[in-house]
Write a structure and sequence with these properties.
The complex is a heterotrimer. Chain A has eleven helices and eleven strands. In chain A, strands 1-9-8-7-6-2-3 form a seven-stranded mixed beta sheet, sandwiched between helices. In chain A, helix 6 packs across helix 9 and helix 7 crosses helix 9. Chain B is built from five helices and four strands; from the N terminus they run βαβαβαβαα. Helices cover about 30% and strands about 10% of the residues of chain B. Chain B has a four-stranded parallel beta sheet with strand order 2-1-3-4, with helices on both faces. Chain B is globular and about 50 Å long. Chain B is an alpha/beta fold. Chain C has two domains: about 130 residues, no CATH class; about 130 residues, no CATH class. In chain C, strands 1, 2, 3, 4, 5 and 9 form a six-stranded mixed beta sheet that branches. Chain C is globular. The relative contact order of chain C is 0.12. The chains are: A alpha/beta, B alpha/beta, C alpha/beta. Chains in contact: A-B, A-C, B-C. The interface between A and C is large, with 45 and 50 residues.
Chain lengths: ~350, ~190, ~325
């Protein structure tokens, strides 16, 4: 594989060239956040920090128009009303610049929901086929990063089409897929010293504190499922907002609503959050998850018990979590899912060996 | 300027007892008035939730006029007295959200004041025409990337100037710059 | 903040543990610059308690969801005003609350710390007088405390809680400057169009997570919040500029006369959108028109809940222009 070199001051120009063929989403600094914006001239992409939100917005937009509809009475038989449905336009090729390996890994977890379960989501499938990831490898994990706990790593290649490795003066560029080759083609080959620097880097991954053994997480969860004191204490601080779920690369829940005006309307798919009290509020008024303790239990359970148990894999468990740490960083009350999982494992180990469904 | 010549959309919230009667009197007397104002009848000016006004303005109304009974003459005794405080607070709040406070007005018109109603409507409509159409809080249009490529420059987000490499410097906001330098990875 | 004070807090809480189901206080979060709320049920939990300038959260936010329980709460001056406002509105029952008041001389603003130094590898944080000494991966860094204090602390007029059952530590003198709402005035020097465009830009990165709403101690509508309601249908679920902006306007309007400027809304925004400015404008006008401040006096009637026949400061709108 050819290693290429992208100088730091050429990033804007190369991105502009990509913008001719793709809808480019690039990260910029705004406020205290790093936000993906549609590429525009004079933009200065900022690749020094992981973007605040994950890259899933390219595949699963926060608001998506599924289709428009119009009711029309049949003029020959006024008792009949016909519905005309017009589908949304197919997505254009999209390039997302600046996600980290943890973001790109999230794509595989989204695939499980939208592609692998027997019913294929047509919109997601179309976007997936048309979206390419140019990720930035991590040199210095932050104190909220725990990608290696869930099977990832600072240079994990899963989900990326092109990977940019920070080196002196810019980035060493490696194309990881056929589409990536096409994207990287315009970037010149790297001189020998850059190749050498890259080799050294790849041989010496950044040091991360040792990952705990999470293999007992699913059964610990089930053992303490009914221990509401535990879940109440862990969730005492939670605000039930939605920051963790909306920023998470692996969270995919959505809501479908119709917005009418007269005889016309559109059907929208929007992100939903299991942390909200409304999530399971039924039409009757009953709510199976009325408290924050139930909802936090569900979120942790989904990621660290239900998902690994549903997905059969050889070798390590697949958690529905990429360890990106956004939920910890951006949580207003600093809920730390790492602490919840470790507490859960500890509590489960001490609990009686009884499995509650 | 866009929308020259089109009818402006001004929403009027009129209390049923005084102001609606006053507007009715103006109609019966066949006074000539601008037709931009569309009336929504409410039982009392105290019914008017400031959100009615905010939603109207942000959804495309160019102006909002609230009219009620004169203070001390409210059909429900005190409704307009609460409204006075509430609507005055709303009027003072509008500048911070970037809406010209002259687009919102609250007045007192009684049922016999048909001519006065005509004068208020005329004056307010003229004012709104002077101010121009209300800017819309809509997403900037984005052209397809292929089109941008052909044209050689970006039409995306014309009203959002990008910050320079040191980060945004918008008025008064904290935490703009983390001082770590440009686009290099760390 | 000193060891004696922590001992005093722990003793006070220990004394009340028999009277309450639990006490909500602060403990160390995922790194030395972050605190996280903790519920203390028994004496062994007391060791996890801390109180220092990292304790930014307003624990009064939890009060409404836990009403009906007998509980204790650790409050700073600003937090106590939120409690006072909830008491004023009769939303929580004073009899079920035990308040541990912590006179406070300021909390840090993480956005300001990030401007000065990398915050992702902090190993230790020491608050020493008017300095903040951080131990990072690459060495030590000392910051001026005043440079990283939250804006609200620089203008704080209530360092001592306005309502408390136990006051822990000596009361502090007022050192905050008087609030002239200079930020609001400065913002309004921009033209109307510039202000509109400013919010267009800011709100475009809003992700409609509702952290601002859920972090607000006075937002007690919870799942019947008008923003989520389909009947009446104020807002659609779309994350478009108009809907997001209308929500912020709705929030400010619903808080008129109630907001105590604890700042949690702005602090909890993951995108750093300066939404506190809207509420400050509301409070500025409230102060000017009615000389009123929320959350200070138990018997005060919020000005928008009442009226006067003759309003001194409101020009009679009978004569248009």
């Amino acid at each position: 594989m050819v290693v290429r070199f992208l100088p730091a001051d050429a990033v804007a120009d190369v991105t502009a060239a990509w913008a001719r063929d793709y809808h480019v989403l690039a990260p910029v600094r705004e406020g205290s956040a790093v936000v993906y914006r549609t590429w525009a001239r004079d933009m200065h992409p900022f690749l020094g920090r992981p973007p605040t939100a994950s890259a899933k917005q390219a595949l699963l937009p926060q608001t998506e128009n599924l289709f428009n509809y119009t009711y029309r009475k049949d003029k020959d038989d006024l008792t009949r009303t016909e519905v005309f449905v017009s589908e949304a336009l197919p997505p254009e090729p999209t390039l997302i610049l600046g996600p980290r390996p943890c973001d790109a890994r999230g794509v595989r977890l989204l695939d499980r929901v939208f592609l692998d379960r027997g019913v294929t989501d047509a919109q997601y499938k179309a976007r997936r086929a048309a979206t390419y990831f140019v990720t930035v490898a991590c040199d210095e994990p932050e104190n909220t990063c725990f990608c290696h706990w869930t099977g990832g790593g600072p240079r994990d290649e899963n989900g990326s089409d092109v990977m940019l490795h920070p080196v002196k003066g810019g980035f060493a560029v490696r194309a990881l897929t056929e589409a990536g080759e096409k994207i990287a083609a315009s970037i010149p080959e790297a001189p020998a010293e850059v190749q050498k620097e890259l080799e050294e880097k790849l041989a010496n991954p950044p040091a991360m504190p040792a990952a705990p053994d999470l293999s007992t997480a699913p059964e610990s969860f089930l053992k303490i499922f009914g221990d509401m004191d535990f879940w109440m204490d862990e969730s005492a601080r939670c605000l039930s907002c939605g920051v963790c779920t909306y920023l998470c690369p692996a969270c995919s829940c959505f809501n479908i609503t119709d917005e009418n005006s007269g005889l016309k309307g559109r059907r929208l798919r929007t992100w939903d959050t299991c942390m909200s009290a409304l999530y399971t509020l039924e039409g009757s008024g009953h709510n199976p998850r009325p408290n924050r303790s139930h909802r936090l239990r569900n979120r942790v359970g989904h990621k660290f018990c239900y998902h690994p148990r549903e997905v059969e894999k050889q070798g390590a468990l697949e958690f529905s979590c990429t360890g990106c740490g956004r939920c910890i960083k951006s949580c207003p009350v600093s809920v730390d899912i790492r602490r919840v999982v470790l507490d859960m494992i500890e509590r489960g180990a001490a609990a009686a060996p009884e499995v509650k469904p | 300027m866009q929308d020259v010549g089109r009818d402006y959309r001004i929403i009027g919230f009129l209390c049923n007892w005084c102001s609606y009667g006053g507007a009715d009197a103006a109609g019966v007397a066949r006074f000539s008035q601008p037709t931009d104002l569309r009336i929504i009848r409410v039982p009392c000016s105290g019914r008017v939730d400031p959100m009615f006004v905010a939603k109207a303005l942000l959804s495309g109304a160019d102006g909002v006029l609230v009219s009620g009974c004169h203070p001390r003459d409210c059909h429900y005794s005190e409704g307009n007295l609460y409204a006075r405080r509430r609507l005055e607070m709303l009027r003072r709040f509008l500048p911070i959200i970037g809406v010209d406070e002259r687009r919102f007005e609250y007045i007192w018109v009684s049922a016999s004041e048909g001519a006065r109603w005509r004068d208020m409507v005329t004056k307010f409509t003229e004012k709104i025409h002077e101010l121009g159409p209300m800017p819309r809080m809509t997403e900037p249009a984005r052209t397809l990337c292929a089109l941008e490529g052909m044209l050689g420059h970006s039409l995306a987000q014309p009203d959002m100037a990008q910050p320079g490499p040191e980060g945004a410097a918008a008025a008064g906001t904290a935490g703009m710059n983390d001082g770590k330098g440009g686009a290099n990875g760390r | 903040m000193g060891a004696d004070r922590m001992a005093e807090l722990r003793a006070a809480i220990a004394g009340e543990l028999g009277n309450v189901d639990f006490v909500l206080g602060y403990s160390r979060g995922f790194d030395p610059l972050h605190a996280t709320p903790v519920s203390v049920r028994s004496e062994k939990d007391l060791d996890t308690l801390i109180f220092d300038p990292t304790c930014v959260q307003n624990l009064a936010t939890c009060l409404y969801g836990l009403r009906g329980k007998r509980m204790g709460l650790v409050v700073k001056g600003c937090d106590s005003r939120s409690v006072m406002q909830l008491l004023q509105e009769k939303i929580v029952d004073r009899a079920n609350l035990v308040l541990f008041g912590m006179p406070c001389d300021g909390v840090i603003d993480m956005a300001k710390v990030r401007v000065q130094t990398d915050i992702t590898h902090v190993r230790e944080a020491h608050f020493e007088g008017d300095k903040v000494r951080l131990v990072l991966a690459e060495g030590e860094k000392t910051l001026e405390k005043r440079a990283v204090l939250a804006d609200k602390c620089l203008r704080c007029r209530y360092p001592n809680p306005v309502v408390a059952d136990h006051m822990i530590g000596p009361e502090l003198p007022v050192t905050g400057v008087e609030d002239t709402y200079a930020d609001v005035t400065a913002f309004e020097k921009l033209s109307t169009q510039e202000r509109f465009d400013f919010w267009k830009r800011q709100m475009s990165r809003c992700i409609r997570c509702y952290a601002c709403r859920n972090a607000c101690p006075l937002c007690v509508c919870k799942h019947v919040c008008l923003a989520d309601s389909r009947e009446p249908h104020w807002l659609s679920a779309e994350a478009t500029l108009q809907e997001k902006w209308l929500f912020q306007v709705m929030h400010a309007l619903h808080l008129a006369g109630r907001c105590t400027e604890c700042g949690e809304c702005q602090r909890s925004c993951p995108e750093g959108i300066p939404i506190l400015l809207l509420k400050r404008k509301m409070n500025k006008e409230l102060k000017e028109l009615f000389n009123y401040e929320a959350g200070v006096s138990l018997d005060a009637v919020p000005p928008l809940h009442t009226f006067l026949m003759e309003e001194e400061k409101i020009k009679d709108r009978g004569m248009l222009w």
